[in-house]
Amino acid sequence: MSEPSLYHLYAYPNTYSIGAHLLLEESGVPYCIVNPKSNPALTDADFYSASPHGRVPAMVLPNGNTLCESGAIALHLADTLYNQKLSIKPESVDRGRYLQWLFYLSSTLQPEVMIVFHPEHYFPDNKRQAELTEAAQTRLEKIWSVLEHEYSHTNNTNNPWMFSDGPTAVDFALATVLLWPECFPSSSQAYPALNAMLQALSARESFKRIMPWHQGLTDVAPSRESPAS
Ligand SMILES: N[C@@H](CCC(=O)N[C@@H](CS)C(=O)NCC(=O)O)C(=O)O
Fold it and tell me: For residue 199, is it within any domain?
């Protein structure tokens, strides 16, 4: 691949790439989407040097450094882009809580999501896969109630985001999973605050711009060639 002069996001539609894609869109930086399964210019060696497990999201930053793991990408982009508007700054009293929930999404929520989508990674037979999936769904219910409590507890009625000054990387990372009906029962009345956050996100231009590709409605992945004015 040629020398990076912009952010290259390795992404497949409707995956953990959504959070990073939203951050790039929101911040207005030049970026392009590289789908490792359909990009002839990308070698396996390039992709695996950025993502040792061959997973998305992964990135090549404009300085040529690579990055993988959705949580690390979210933290890094939010801290370095858009005047840190999508981050909780290190000096803020809320920084610890921000990190807590970012890590919670990767280390408590994500393992259950992985089981729901890929029980075959854990057991070969259908019966044990079904039992494991059922256990993961029960654990997801607990996770949704913890997050619902956090969103309803910390926000006033006019603010759907986790923090009071607007959306941050945490909201985008969480929304990625809320979009997956296999994991989150958005029709349930049990999670009004989480649904309100998802609704607020759906109204944003960044979301409207990227989701047709993630939803399979177009083959053209939205990218940005020059900085947004
Ligand atoms: N821990 C990783 C998980 C990423 C992940 O599992 N990505 C999936 C898509 S959501 C993937 O690339 N799967 C393709 C594969 O495993 O070959 C992260 O948070 O970035």
Answer: yes
CATH number of the structural domain spanning residue 50: 3.40.30.10
* Most ligand 1 atoms within 8 A of CB, residue of 9, 16, 180 to mutate: 16
Tens digit of each residue's pLDDT (9 = 90 or more) over 61-113: 999 999 999 999 999 999 999 999 999 999 999 999 999 999 999 999 999 99
pTM of the model: 0.95
- The Å distance, Cα 229 to ligand 1 centre, comes to 33
Residues touching ligand 1 (Cβ under 6 Å) are: 15-16, 54-57, 69-71, 106, 110
Q: 157 and 57, same structural domain?
A: no
* 72-96: b (≥16 Cβ within 10 Å) or e: ebbbbbbeebbeeebbbeeeeeeee
Identify the helix (H) or strand (E) that includes residue 58: strand 58-60
Range of the domain at 150: 95-166+168-203
